[in-house]
Input
Amino acid sequence: NMNAGLQNRADDDDSVEITLPPHQRCAPYTVNLVSCSDVDKWILSRPEMGIYKSATAKCAALWNKASRSTVAAETVEDLIGRRLIVPCTTRWNSFHNALSTICEIPTVELNAISFKFGTKTITEKEHQLLREYCAVMRPLTVALDILQGEDNCYHGILVPTLETLIMKTLEK
Output
């Protein structure tokens, strides 16, 4: 019955008020909130994690420069043989994918790009932190890809995906 979730409530004046059941958030949205908000809040609340903020700010400067002109994008491609992936605000995974791309580029080459763009260079320590961040966050990224997938996401995949995410996260 389509109206099974609706509830009728009669008031004293015999008028009927229909109320909807409580709103249920979808699982990918909730997992996305954890990855976008909760992880960042936790990292940024730790004074010793200031290095994360400086490293991601330097990455953001590179992404901004590389995405604002074709000349800048071609400069990056000439230096490292490919373009930088620029994060998209609508999907958290794009941030992880963009950071993963930066982690694959040796620090010397990243700093050559920074020098060309006139931005601050990434230190080896910051680069190492970004690599560790990407490794730890990878299971969450894979889970989000599965849960946000258009082809094979169905109700029965939620619990196994979350169980695998928990297991893989605890392994890190």
Notes: The two ends are 46 Å apart (CA to CA). The first strand starts at residue 7 and ends at 10.
